[in-house]
Amino acid sequence: MAAAGGSSSKRTWVVDVEKKLKEADKSAEVSRWERHCIYQVPPCMTNIKSKAYQPQVVSLGPFHHGDRDLRPMEEHKHRALRQLLLRANRSLDDFVAAVEEVTEELEGAYMDLDNEWRADGGGRDRFLAMMIFDGCFLLEVMRCTAADGKQVGDYAHNDPIFSPHGILYMVPYIRRDVLMLENQLPLLLLQKLVEAESGKPQSEDFINRMVLKFLAQSSGTLPAGIGLGLHPLDVFRRSMLTGKHHKIRSPQDIEDDDAIIRSAVELYEAGIQFKPSKTLSLHDIRFRRGMLSMPTVSVDDSTEYMFLNMMAFERLHAGAGNDVTGYVFFMDNIIDSAKDVALLSSKGIIQNAIGSDQAVAKLFNTISRDVVLEPNSALDAVQRQVNGYFRQPWNMWRANLIHTYFRSPWAFLSLAAAIFLLGMTIMQTVYTVLQFYGGDSNSAPPSAPSPM
Q1: 71 and 213: one domain?
Q2: Same domain for 169 and 270?
Q3: Which of 214, 218, 220 is nearest to 240 (CA)?
């Protein structure tokens, strides 16, 4: 009877699931996911180095807002907003109205945003205030940095953030935090704030260039007309991927197997040369006529977290591509030890600013752990092309010869001694043979016996 009664009345959780299935709208889900571009990095990805994804001095956006170690910067955000309003001679209401127009888009940029920040959870005003404070703070930092030591606004000469002293000592940490995936601000926010400040629309290219100049002062350009970037990390990543991959001109030279490319030293021993590419784009990697050209990369204290956050963005954002991840995997393949780093440094491909060559090798070997690659990528084709050249018989013999006899001076001396003894033996044999036949030719020819 109990079983019959249980079968006649549906369980509560079954009713809830059926209700959600009926309410599910695939098109609405697609539309919601398309707006996401700022993510929290899951634990399965932070196990390599968790601190590489966490801001150290300033929180931007909701994910780390209120963290204990980042609270001291909140005071400076209020001062930045005050200075910006005074300099622009605008009211706070103008900024609020401009940002409020796009609040829904700004909320949609953050995946898994807590209800305390959402409109339906009563957090719309709190979210709006956070966006304005954080956005104005980032604008003021970028402008003071671009001033190149000149005073901007009415900041005190000893201001801990916005003075030349603060720009020199604090901005490097802020710039690092701006590249954290969990610490991003949508560039749409910056565009609206600049429009409210100036009273006129601002082009997307202007916003992109302003952000990129702050993040990559020494290099990095973006072509015009590519559209507004998603956030600072997206703009910085796209600046490293300008141009298109080089097409393989000789498909017949490509290996068909999936073998991993050899290390730089092994390739060099097989006759493959290295040289810096003409540009700094990670797309500018090509192999032609035994020459592997690669972009110059500067390895310093910021390289590890920069690559890790860009790789996390590629893994979490559908449609972002796999270019940075593929490059890091490619570098991990050709760097096995400090000797490979030393070789690439001598060719101008790696600029080592962190110390030992072993530290650089460990960096690339570590950050490429558990990477996921897209099949049939452009770098995969280059790798197969290099393998095809390496496996030609003469190149393999040359590599084996160098690896066996030229790795140590004693092995080289033994080879030289053996070649010398072999040469002396051949010369002695030739001399003996020539002497023998030379002596027979100088003797008189046999004469016929005289008649009786």
Answers
A1: yes
A2: no
A3: 220
CA 43 to chain centre: 20
Query: Which pLDDT belongs to residue 2?
Result: 46
231 residue type, one letter: H
Compute the C-alpha angle 213/217/221, nearest 5°.
Answer: 60
Of the pLDDT bands very low, low, confident and very high (cuts 50, 70, 90), residue 421 is: confident
Check residue 452 and give its pLDDT. 44
Same domain, 64 and 173: yes
Would you tell me how many other CB atoms lie within 10 Å of the CB of residue 40?
17
Helix, strand, or coil (residue 351): strand
Predicted local distance difference test score (pLDDT) of residue 68: 94
Looking at residue 225, what DSSP letter applies?
A: T
Mean pLDDT on 313-337? 93
286-288 and 273-276 beta bridge pairing: unpaired
Distance CA 429, CA 426 (A): 5
Candidate ranges 358-362, 392-396, 420-424; pick with highest mean pLDDT: 358-362
Q: Is residue 189 a contact partner of residue 127, using CB atoms and an 8 Å limit?
A: no
Q: Which of 248, 319, 243 is nearest to 281 (CA)?
A: 243
Domain hosting 61: range is 43-239
d(Cα 234, Cα 41) in Å, to the nearest integer?
Answer: 16
Whether the CB-CB separation of 406 and 412 falls below 8 Å is answered with yes
For the chain, the distance separating the N- and C-terminal CA atoms, rounded to the nearest angstrom, is 147
Does residue 429 sit within a domain?
no
Residues 58 and 100 grouped into a single domain: yes
> What's the one-letter identity of residue 331?
M
DSSP 409-451: HHHHHHHHHHHHHHHHHHHHHHHHHHHHHHHHHHSPPPPPPPP
Are both 256 and 226 inside the same structural domain? no
